[in-house]
Amino acid sequence: MMYDVLIIGAGFAGLTLAYQLRKKSSDLRIAIVHDSSFPLDDISDKVGESFNEIGAVYFDQMLGLKEFMKERYPRKLGMRFFKINESSYQEMGYNNFTPNHAFHFERGKLENDLFDLVKDKVDFYLNHKYLDFETVDGEKHVHVLDRNDKSSRTLKAHWLVDAAGLKKLLARKFDLTHRLPLNHSSVWFRVGGGVNVDDFLPLTSDNPFTTENRSWSSIHLEGVGYWVWILRLSENVTSVGIIFDENMYEFQDLATWEKTKLWLRDNVRVLMDYLDEEQFPIMDFRILRRFATQSDYWVSDERWALVGDAYGIWDPYYSNGFDLIGMQNTILTELILAERAGQEIHQRIQGANRFISDVMRGFAATFTDFYSRKDRWYYICSKYNVDMAVYFPILATIVHNSLESMFVDEDPVFRDRVLFYLEEGGGIYFQLIQLLASDEFKNNGVDGYDYMPLNADTYHAFVPEMDIPYHEKERVFPILEKNCNLLWCVFHYLKSGRNYMDFIKNGAYFAITEQTDPERYRDNPDQLEADLFHSA
């Protein structure tokens, strides 16, 4: 049989791509080659157990699976950050859920569920190992090995997609992948119990957080050169992990569970004391070392593509890996369907590579020289909110309202204009990141606030419309123009040396419009406060 699409890998990326393709075109012939079988253990050996907001948009808007997820997995209460001091702590996070439905999940359980959704719509070659492929008369001849009887076979396909993760099968074949200048590594383990942050970082009398769902946030315990994640995957399972900079910590000091326990006792004693007291069983222990890689491009005129970790990964701090998969799968679906309809897609492939490259440049700015600067709470708070001031207003706006429309037409006019705003927002963001890294910011004397509640409704200020229809797609441009103005206002306010947390607390985001002139505030923060501050 000749397949329209052959996908290597039945993990999150490959299964969601197959589901999305069949959802858009039910007569597509799809095969998935996977080197193991189903069902998986609920506790998988893969890192990645939480969506961020763009991943939530993907599951809701593109896949239509929000209700499916709500029935099976705990909803995530945004991100929550702590800096633990000797006798106190500082905290930033939400009291209320943001509009998008993000989730925590046991990775094996989720992939089992996704497999069940597509198993009757896709031909699976389970326990088959991908060996190689060549192109013959314009078609892919894909050679695989059946692990059961050691026999080999050749499958034919029009498109070939590597969704097999860090194996990077196609990127290595074409010598596209390279290591990134980021020496971050990870160790993680799952415990058989519900880790409750209220038990070891209890609310104090002056703490403004009122939610009972604190522990269902994506918890970040912040330290210089590292952070610790805590993710409640269910009532009875919690994932705990450490991402650390090997320029500051020796990998061998965390290379085993026993060493990691000692490291946690030295660096995050309050957590380790709590785990010892609760005596939760340790379900596993995993390592992923120096994982930051990227490929030169992700989709080829020769009709093959690299999706998710097969293409690249910077850092899991914001769970951006699932964002990347959602964006790539959505673009790739439009490309495959356009080409199948007989349309020319060369320019669209160039735009696809440009879009994802721009996104990855943003991730580069986000994570380069970040971990070493986290000795100051105000920096941690400012950095997160600056990152979100481009992630929500620019990237989420595009994913909600433009991403599919960008690749429907051969005409590049709409696509190029969206890319202009992505790059314009990115350019302002790069200046913001440079400012946060400067001595000017480091020595500005601003302390911020020990407790920083974030307003979930701010998402509506950033993304006032969602799922703009294709025939009205130009409505996205005033939103992107307004949000670039927003980024400039943030820059001018931070540059003035005033407390960015006041900018947020006083509702400045809500007051910025397409007509706002950021130049008015370049050297006049008093005017910015007069014009933009109001009760949010």
TrEMBL record:
Pfam families: FAD_binding_3 (PF01494). It comes from the Bacteria. Coiled coil: none annotated. Residues 3-177 form the FAD-binding domain. Gene3D superfamilies: FAD/NAD(P)-binding domain. This is Tryptophan 7-halogenase. It comes from Bombella apis. The lineage of its organism: Bacteria, Pseudomonadati, Pseudomonadota, Alphaproteobacteria, Acetobacterales.
